[in-house]
Amino acid sequence: MPEAMVPDWYIKDPEVAPPGTPSYLCANCRHIDFIALFRQEESDVMPKARDYIMLGQLQAILGNAEECGFCRFVLRLVGSDGAGGLATEEERVTARREKLISLLEESFYLCPIRFKTTFNNPALYICSAQEVAEATAAAGQTGQATMKRPRNTMAFRPLHVSAPNLGRPLREPATMDFEWVRERMALCDERDYGKLDFRHRVPVRAIDVEDMCIVDLEDGARYVTLSYVWGEVQQPKLTRATEFQLRRPGGMWVILESVPLTIRDAITLTRKIGERLLWVDALCIIQDDPVDLKRSMGQMGNIYRHSILTICACAGEDAAYGLPGVRPGTRNTQQLGSVVGKLALGNILPASEATEASKWSTRGWTMQEKVLSQRKLQITDHCAMWWCWHTITSEDENCRHSGWQPGTDHRGMHFFRDEHELVVSKILGRNSNMDTYAFMISDYTNRNLTDQADAANAFLGIFDQLDGTFRGEFIAGLPDTEIAASLLWVPIGPHRRRCIRDPETSHVRPLFPSWSWLGWIGQVAYPWLIERSLPMSESGSPLMWRNQVENFDEEDAWFTGNDYRLDGGVDPNAVERQRGLPPRWRLDP
């Protein structure tokens, strides 16, 4: 091969370590410069099939695995793919054996590039021959970034005890690292000194996890919130009848055995990370008091926004599942590690993928809890994931902002998924309030609600947050100051009316107007927002209104939502101006 065609990762004359030593690599793997691969610039261009690094058939890799550190690591990675969700070690061993036997004649490759990531993560991927063919076919002749990327379960990176962005060896994979959570809290407190606001300004109760009772929160007190899926689980609730007992010190112990595992684990976790107060809706809102329910529902956004941390239960289907890793033996985390030459390599635990695939991410109520929380600890079956205004990191990763100087500005919050092209604006970085609204509506309408009557209530916290940006009110979920623009939503996929059955008459009636997305069950989007070159404004809306008042010239009959017309007139008189404008509106001269 001509010298100019030799790839940068190829070692022409590698050192050969003695067989039987940790640094020994087989005749194939010793030519791979792993450090060069990890240090290369990130790319959004899919490699051609010929550029993938051939590792060989699995049976050949198996033959070398006893002495070659990288072959041994590849074998463990391939065998463990898909076995992490099994309950027992015996089941996992059986699954790994059966998988390896079925793939003995399959060839495997090392992807030679680093894909672009938000935080410049050094990760490489193992691919089967079939996956290489599918990926290169998806890229077509263009080699664009729309290719099919390898699965994260086949990704790996260097392990290090402290270097930012590299993998972090877990002290005890089967149990959550509470010290790691405390370190994240302390570091974020240091960066956010004077920035975070814990003043909730409304009556809020919480569980005192030391005295095990319900207490009233003082304004400005530090407290943790729990975001979880209730499901069909029967659980004790705070009611007018139980409030006196639960307010007594130790009163929670009486009902603790009947409290779902997720809430019990949240109490334990709050205590383990050095916090004392925990807010849980079922035990901190009087469930049979309509006044307390209504007040708390309207303040849900404030409650989550002003908490010190939100624990997100991103595992299981309901509140009975628990928080994996809080109790010993409640998670089956498989961190694979191997010495390869001068490097220690480890797999990447599927934290973000597990979060997005969770029941928690599909529920309508949890969206405002996700969006409004200042910090989140997202707990999956595999590990815990930390999210704050500075960074996103997980238990198996050395935190990226560990070396930041105190006072470093926030880098901004990333709220929304972008799986659907109709949801992604082409003017990112120049987004308006309507862009933000469109992102949130698309995400929210793709979620599920057990009780359709909650459709507006589950979004109240976000409405409250958006209220100031629109300088108006919301009518059936639409901002009245941008009513023309907000009417132009379109359904994505099948829709049906959001209705409720009257328990007395059995008649079915719609809950919301048909012209609002709230009136329908199913995801919606604002595709016309995408195909524009300027930030959104009411005057930029493609919707035109026609004045139905007689004796108007055709030229004056049509107007946009940027004009406000009283009694049909183009130029209302002073009396109409005084009496006709809604609260908080003003008529510009």
From TrEMBL:
Listed InterPro entries: HET
The Heterokaryon incompatibility domain, residue ranges: 223-369
Highest taxon of source: Eukaryota
Location of the region described as Disordered in the Swiss-Prot/TrEMBL record: 569-589
Pfam families membership: HET
PANTHER family: DOMAIN PROTEIN, PUTATIVE-RELATED (PTHR33112), HETEROKARYON INCOMPATIBILITY DOMAIN-CONTAINING PROTEIN (PTHR33112:SF12)
Name of this chain's protein: Heterokaryon incompatibility protein-domain-containing protein
Organism: Immersiella caudata
Lineage: Eukaryota, Fungi, Dikarya, Ascomycota, Pezizomycotina
